[in-house]
Amino acid sequence: MTFGTSARLEFALEDLCREILAANGWNVEALEFPRIDIIATEPTSSDLIAFEVKYTRSPTYPTSALRISSERLIESAHAAGINKAVLIVATDIKPKIKAEVEYQYKIQVLNLDDLLSLASIDLELLGKLVKLREIDLSERNLDSNIKNIIQPATIDQSLDSSSSDENEKIGNSFIDALRAIPLGKDGCYDFEDTVSNILKYLFDGDLSGWHQQKRTTDDLHRYDLICRVIDNSTVWKFISLNLDSRYVLFEFKNYKDEIGQSQVYSTEKYLYEKAKRKVCFLISRKGPSENAVIACQGAMREHGKLILNLDEKMVIDLINSKISGDDPNELLFDKVDKFLMELPR
């Protein structure tokens, strides 16, 4: 099995958290339970604590993902017979939201400053964390009283997990609907509508507008969906600021075969630098042909227009990321980053 950059970074963060806990006197257990990243024993007692670790490049973590992660962690801890839980999110979390989540779910949430403070017990571990998160340590607010940072309460056994259950139900229904759409012309409108709704489910807090089926003024060309970018997460901030694209297009191709270079050239016509519209996600069932990939590379290299291909499998991966309480923007960033890093001369 191959993993993207975000998955590898999350695994690396999990391993680093194990080292940080051990350096602070915690006994990291060799026990394994589904959907629990780390199980460790408190230094001052024999209580087992369940830890879930979330990695993100973004400066904040989506509140909805934070709540879903909390509910899923509690469910997993209950199943394992563990009464205390800690959610580690390696980014900043607004104090009000952190307090609300901790009060509602009776778990402890550790943010990036908490984790940095715990890592400061060992300069090598601190250096690894700073490098992993690509941050400036001088801008962080560390707590010198590290022995009292991890103080989880006892989990509320009467937790209402309806948000997590509903999110999973919605996500799985989208996956089933997407897979059931027939390939080709017969399913083109269903594909367009279904994927549009999936995008709203995934990126509602990152995009706005959601204007569908617009015809250009020359009455010849149509694009399926246009959105305005909100600079909330790293990938959309990169698109908006670094690529200077305040708007993004989405094109839907329900073809039986891989899309060809002609579809890329057609899509490229909808992108305009002066209109701050330089990015398009070309979503298809089977993905791009080799010639289509070359055409996308040429559009970026010669005209600064970013056309990224997402196939059905990638869309399902994004949905599963949302179901699990992760941030789908991480997978999308991987896609953008890989394309630009591998762009040939």
From TrEMBL:
GO BP of this protein: DNA restriction-modification system
The organism's taxonomic lineage, starting at the top: Bacteria, Bacillati, Cyanobacteriota, Cyanophyceae, Pseudanabaenales
Family matches, as Pfam families: Mrr_cat
Residue ranges of domain Restriction endonuclease type IV Mrr in the record: 12-118
Name of this protein: Restriction endonuclease type IV Mrr domain-containing protein
SUPFAM superfamilies: Restriction endonuclease-like (SSF52980)
Molecular function as annotated in GO: DNA binding; endonuclease activity
Highest taxon listed in the record's lineage: Bacteria
Organism: Pseudanabaena frigida
